[in-house]
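thought: fold this chain, then report.
action: predict
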Amino acid sequence: MRVTLLIAWREYMENVKTKGFWIGVLLVPIVFFLIFHVSSRLATATPTRYYLLIDQSGDYAAAVETAIRREHQRRVMLDFMRYLQEHRRDTETASFSAEPAAQLNQLLDDYDNDEVAALDSWLNNGGLDYALTMAQPYLRDDAPGFTEPRPQFVEASVPPEVDPDADAELVVEQLRPYLNGERRINVGDDSASLFALILIPENVDQDIVRPATLPGLMTPDSGPRGVQYWAGNLTDTRLSGAIQSSINSAIRQQEYASQGIDVAAVRNVQRTRLPLSRLDPGKAEGDEAVSLADTFRQWAPMGFVYLIFISLMQSVQYLLSNTIEEKSNRIIEVLLASVTPGELMMGKLLGIGITGITTILAWIVAFFVFIRLYQTVETAMIVQVLDVLLSSDLIPYFIFYYLSCYALYAGIFLAIGSLCNTLKEAQSLMMPLMAVLVVPILTMSFIAQDPNGTLARVMSWIPLFTPFTMMNRAAAQPPMIDIVGTTIVLVLTTAAVLWLSGRVFRQGILRSGQPPRIIELWRMLRRSTD
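observation:
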């Protein structure tokens, strides 16, 4: 045992002294920080989008303007709530929501155009200033002033050579060079690219879809119908979505008025709702309500599965590169003069396993330092997730399945390394095993959505998938037969794999020449077991 520990310490020190180890340790938190920092900066760095609005019908320009104003007010409110979250005095006791986007989306979705206009009026009459005054006692003394975001969608003037009253097809043809980026529109003393054209034809009302007209619209080659939204950017759908919602709301109000229906009464009816209580039957009586923390806990195992996979891949690299390098340099022969192949193998597994644990601990420490120094709305969400994870029973699951996964796969990879003289030879032998490892990653989201379904239960009983699948199911309270049964199968399989890997390692570590074929490998295993 002492010899094994000495070899493990040697392996550990050799790995932690390399530049690659520290690059791997530092790279993950740096990438994590860049994701948050860059994404938050990019969210406010979106360039101004200039659009043209041509309403030949004369009925829907106000609805489009309402949609643009609504989208801007959404950004103002989101930025204001982030401002409160970031500059409040006490982050522990403040009651501001850590999820402003979801709440505001729900709030604004509940409102119709009239209510959004009322929100605009409230803001224009000093509502934002009033809110800042009310929030002032909760802000830190050094909190900067709130800066209202600039409008992202700005209407531009129609180019002089374009006749807005011409036929819709002709208008589009005249503006096509601007939409394709071949020409730029004039914006004050400068020019800018045209983001979108909102064209509302004169006879747009005949395309309104009513229950009686729906079959007639199901005809092929009908061409563009209704409001035409022309834009080369197909990923930014904020403007098109807001316009569609606003115009449909305006049309419904017209329909109510034409049919003599009281719009206010309809609006009150639309606000009528029946709440839906999400309850978890597995929780104690009286505490069945599903909270945001419960939702986090349900999806958290996926993060642990990723962590197991990433750490395993890093350990595989150490196992293969160290073994092949020592074998090619004949250091193995020197070591085997003093220790047995079994002691050498176990020492390598133990030392590189501790290296992987060290990497995970370094990532966790860097993670805590990051959320401590970089406090934003997004990191507040992460703090909530961490509180849920640390207070749950997922940590023991993670420790067990991490160790068992490492022991199961590390023995196989170490055996592969003992059979190869170069990394190129090892890559060809690793391909089947890598294909196996990809399976639980590809099915991870499906298992998280149906943790006790057939797919999850079948994969749980396949030892190569058990650590990943059972970790993914840990938050869903899988049946006890699955927990106990798969654990027994996994432990027995791991012991068998380590035993067989030891036999291969013993014969392959001093072997030269090409890697054995499958039939030769089978003969090695049979010969060693005889």
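thought: worth noting. The chain has two domains: 1-36+292-527, 48-213+222-271.
final: tokens above.
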